[in-house]
Amino acid sequence: MSTNEQLLNAVTEPLRVTVAGHTNTGKTSLLRTLTRDARFGEVSGRPGTTRHVEAARLLVNGKVLLELYDTPGIEEPIDLLALLTEQAGNAGNEDGRTRIRRFLDSAPAKERYDQEAKVLRQLIKSDAAFYVLDARDPVLAKHRDELEILRLCGVPLLPLLNFVADPAAREDEWRDALAGLGLHAIVRFDTVTPTQDGERLLYSKLANLLDAHSATLNALMASHAEDARQRHHSALMLIADLLIGVAALQQRVSSLDAAVLDKASATLNERVREREQACVERLLSLYRFYPDDLESAALPLVEGRWQQDLFDPYTLQTMGLKVGSGAAAGAAAGVGVDLMVGGITLGAAAAVGALLGGGLQTLRHYGSSLMGMISGEKVLRIDDNILRALAARQCQLLKALEARGHAAQHKIIAAGAADTIFEGQRLPAPLRQAQANPDWASAKPSFDFEDRRQQALDELVEILASRQPSPAQST
Ligand SMILES: Nc1nc2c(ncn2[C@@H]2O[C@H](COP(=O)(O)OP(=O)(O)OP(=O)(O)O)[C@@H](O)[C@H]2O)c(=O)[nH]1
Ligand SMILES: [Mg+2]
Q1: Would you give the distance in Å from CA 246 to the centre of its chain?
Q2: d(Cα 301, Cα 295) in Å, to the nearest integer?
């Protein structure tokens, strides 16, 4: 039995954690990020958005490990604390829970304080609570009163500093104030841009507060790390498959006539765009983002589409790349298409280049051009720098998706700012092999070449992984 299974077997019932805090501090956003569900609840910049308690469950192997409860924001803590104190007035030394229960049974809990009552009703039956705060806020009396009220429920509280990525965050001020209230275990967790090990830290601090539930939290952390590794590997497979497929793409042309080249390269470009788009959609869905969640911004995509066309010379320029092949580099002839003229010697190629007025700078001979040598056929294929740009863009997207919380609603990286991935003169071997194997344009089952394609794919995944390690590896 694996350690993970042992941990899971030790879990008897789900851990119940209430997410509480002042209104508009990012409670619902936290739920979105922890459940990786960008559609959970309603998030907005106006206060009082969440009006009811709403639960989300985290499952591992079909078993519910954690139940998280989103709650309405607390709006009137100062008056409520005064009421609780007043209600306790003649009751002597009763404990906090009794005071809270009395309040919950009283008329104000159904009227003026009905939002607050929903929070307390949930909190009192939970194992713990995250107290979400906006670290940009100054520490005020209302926060202290709010914490005092929540603490009456007798449930361990873990304060969570949200908005810590904002330069206006007053982290030290909050740490001091919380320490003054006896709250020393604190987590920084920006729900929009959580750090790579943010969730692990969150759960491990919670485990420190909740000895009895450490098996649950350990199982959750182990499963999160494993999920992140698997997602990362699947993402690299998608990217590698795109690159191998595109490198193998070829478009035959009957002549080197400009109009023929134009048409053929346009067809080829379109096939690449479609494949790139399909890869984007798969990556988004693998990371549980939706194209329409990204509206007006997120990533360098608009509604899941790249803002800049891959074949626009400006796109390549912003990545420090240019299209190499002279003859095919004229915009009309299809930017980014490398021209291979089978069977033509360098001398003859130069002549053809001269004919086109461009000069074939990157004439290459690959496997299929041997065929061409006999038949005299000509094929267009995708320029090396387009492959570099494709790799860079997809890896940039992957990085952004891995850094993005599911509560994010705004742009996080600038278009075109991708780092180059395959620097230098030559493309990695698996891509060069793909260029020589037009059959690799799509994965097909059970042919001889399938294994070699798969090997090249695995090799390319390794190369990509060495440039873009999984975030889970650092944890
Ligand atoms: N930049 C940034 N914005 C955040 C973060 N967390 C929340 N927000 C934004 O803050 C606003 C409030 O977020 P919500 O998640 O709705 O807050 P809430 O605490 O659930 O609010 P109520 O339900 O009204 O109590 C939204 O506009 C969020 O997009 C964060 O970590 N960084
Ligand atoms: Mg909310």
Answers
A1: 24
A2: 8
Do residues 335 and 313 touch, judged by C-beta distance below 8 A?
yes
User: Where exactly are the structural domains of the chain?
Assistant: 3-209, 230-474
264 near 381, Cβ under 8 Å? no
Residue 190 near ligand 1, beta carbon < 6 Å? yes
Which H or E run includes 157? strand 157-162
What's the pLDDT band for 472 if we cut at 50, 70, 90? low
Closest C-alpha to 28, from 45, 6, 11 = 45
Q: Average pLDDT for residues 89-110, to the nearest whole number? A: 87
Q: Give residue for tokens 């090990």.
A: 197
Which of 191-204 are b and which e, b meaning 16 or more Cβ less than 10 Å from the residue's Cβ? bbbbbeebbbbbbe
User: CB of 134 closer than 6 A to ligand 1?
Assistant: no
Atom of ligand 1 lying closest to residue 48 CA: 24
Residue 442 DSSP class: S
CATH code of the domain made up of 3-209: 3.40.50.300
Q: Rounded to whole angstroms, what are the CA distances from 128 to 123, 174, 185, 330, 411?
A: 8, 20, 13, 65, 34
Strand partners, 160: 132, 187
Distances (CA, A) of 351 to 346, 354, 355: 8, 5, 6
CA atoms of 317 and 363, how far apart (whole Å): 22
Check pLDDT > 50 for residue 336. no
Ligand 1: atom nearest CA of 70 is 20
Q: What is the per-residue pLDDT across 21-52, written as a single tens digit (0 to 9) for each?
A: 999 999 999 999 999 888 899 998 898 899 99
19, 27, 29: residue to mutate for ligand 1 pocket, most atoms within 8 A of CB? 29
Q: Is the CB of 50 under 6 A from ligand 1?
A: yes
Our measurement of the distance from residue 369's CA atom to the centroid of its chain's CA atoms, rounded to an integer in Å, reads 41
Q: Running DSSP on this structure, what letter comes out for residue 336?
A: T
Return the H-helix or E-strand segment holding 435: helix 429-435
Strand partners, 256: none
Q: How many Å lie between the centroid of ligand 1 and the Cα of residue 77?
A: 19
Residue 378: pLDDT band with limits 50, 70, 90: low
> What is d(CA 335, CA 313) in angstroms, rounded to the nearest whole number?
7
CA distances from 200 to 31, 85, 218 (A): 15, 38, 9
Q: Which has the closest alpha carbon to 2: 44, 61, 42, 82?
A: 61
